[in-house]
Each structure stands twice: as structure tokens, then as C-alpha cells.
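Hello, quick one for you while I still have it in my head. A protein chain has come my way and I'm curious about its shape. Can you walk me through what the C-alpha cells say about the fold? No rush at all, and the record is pasted right below.
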Amino acid sequence: MQNTTAGVTQGVHLKCGLSGSHEFIFTLVPIVYSCNFVIGIVGNSMVVAVIYCYMKLKTVANIFVLNLAVSDLTFLITLPMWATFTAKGYYWPFGGFLCKASAGLVIFNLYTSIFFLTALSIDRYMAIVHPMRSRRFRTVAYAHITCVVIWLFAFVLSVPTALTRDVFNITNSNTTVCGILHPKEENAIRVKQLLLAISLMKTMLGFLVPFIIIITCYCLIGRALLRARHIHRSSHSRGDEVLRMLTAAVLAFFLCWVPHQVFHFLQVLTQLTLVENCAILEIIDTAMPFTICIAYFNSCVNPIVYSFVGRNFRKNLMRLLRCSPGGSSRPHPSISSKMSILSFRASEALSLTVKSRPSSEVK
């Protein structure tokens, strides 16, 4: 039967057919998307509500965390469409505009999430390792400016992805899909270069560079905590706890995104080679939906890893569930948020070090 989706462009014939089309994908992936949607919406909504109602936007970490949760919520609203798309055997019934918008929001969330996590890591590094020197930079005003810059920069980086997505009719299987722009003969080289640039930008700016910055910050924080523990033995348990939390944060980020980035890199390699190997494309296209599920799960695990481990957050969450009136009873430094729990406990350990040194040694 002929597809009648509005905005469908001219039919495209794929040399390898619609690879990665398997019934178990069409069944399992929508279920995972649905679970991600429910868990992510509930978890991130709680983060937003708790921070806004009880913890307020008086700390840099809370501002970053609130923006990170809003970014995750913005992305999560597209999951029902992607679940429907997969459940229908890669048939896109929502038209060209929503195809572009949904694809753009996915990449938009990729950049905003990683940029906010990077900003949080830098903030934690400054707060823990250089608490005195960084006070004039770690202000609410600077945090708001940083958030605006991140939102704008991520939007600019996601626009090319939205523009290179459209609705196509695959003549091999007579299926309407939301996919990457297929070049015509007159502009084939230019479009291929554009798609390659977008893919490399996603790998470099969307993963490698932020990940190197995050790892560097955590290593420097860990070194400072170990030094503090070595100088003052009573901070042993505190330092170990903070290091465990840092390890959990890095592992969550790494495990969620690395599988997708690996297969995305393989896709880039297939773009670099003009010869299409249908067997390799079949493997990549079969594995890609599952790596995407894992990557999308990062939007759900963020509240668990960074927020729900905080006793202050759990206390305020219970107040929210009991519908207790808002208002901050006593301002808490930063244990309230995803990364900020690390700052408070690490600062305790480092303060012991400062107190144990003569005043002349304090820089």
C-alpha cells in the first residue's frame, strides 16, 4: 500500500535495503523506550520540583543540575514518537517537521547534557581544589551566564542535524522513514562532507573532549582528597566515600555513552569509505538501536546517581511527597544536587587539611 505521510520526499532506493530490520528490535526497543520515558519523566520532574521548591537556585551546582534536568525532560518528550517509529517497523507517521525537530532535540540533549555535566565537574574541581581562589568566579550570576551559553551553543550545534533529517520513502520496502538526508548526484560530495563533519563533531564535542575534561577534573579532585586523607587520618572514610561517588559518576557517564559512540564511529568509517559493505551495515544498524537505548538511559540514571544518593535530597523529596510547604529551613552548601554532594563532603576533608597546617602554608 502506498504511504501517504505528509511531507514525504522523493523515494530513495537503498543498495543494502533497510538494514537492521528485525522483529525483536521492533518489539523490545519500544518497551525500553517506554520505560526510559516513564522513569526519566518521574525522576527528572522530582529533581526540578525539589530544587525549585526547597533547595532554591542559590548555589552554582543547583543551577546546573536544574538545567540538566530540564534538558533531559526536553529530550524525553520525543521518546513516545521514537517508540512508535520503531514499533511500526521504522515507519514514521508524524510528518517532516516532527522528524527534523525530534532528531534535532536528540542531539540537542546530547550536547546540553554533556556540557552541563562538564560544567558541574569544573565547578566541583574549583570548589574542592581551589575553594578560596574560585569564590569570585563561582557565583549565581556566572552560573546563569554559563547556562545561557551552553543552551545557545548546543542549539547551534544541533541545527545541522535537524536540517539534514527528513522523511523518505524507501522504495525497497515501500516504508516511510525519518532518516538522514540522501544526496543527489549534483551535490553528493558536498552533502557527504557535511554529514561527515556533523558525525565527527558529535564524536569530538559530544563525547571525547568533554569526557577528557571530566576525567581530568575527577583525577585532580581525587588527588587532592588522597592528599588530604594522607595528612589527616580522620578524613579517611570521608575521602573514600567521595572517591566512590566520583567513580560512580564517571562510570555512569562512560557506560551509557561509550557503546553508542563506538558504533557511531563505525558509521563514520562507513561514510569515509565510498564502498558500502552490506554485512557491516547490517551489524551496525542492528546494534545501533540498543546502544541508543543505553545512551538514552543516561537521562534516567542521572537523578539516581547524582541526586538520590544525597540524604538532604531524600529528605526534601519526602517533604515534597508529603506536600509540605516550601521554603528553605537552613541553607545547605550543595549536598542537594547531582554533583554537589561531592563538594560538601570533600570540602570537609580538605578543611581538615587546612586546619592542620600552619597559617603560613595556606596559599
In short: The beta strands are 165-170, 175-180. The two ends are 75 Å apart (CA to CA). The first helix runs from residue 23 to 55. Confidence is low (pLDDT under 50) at residues 1-7, 234-242, 328-363.
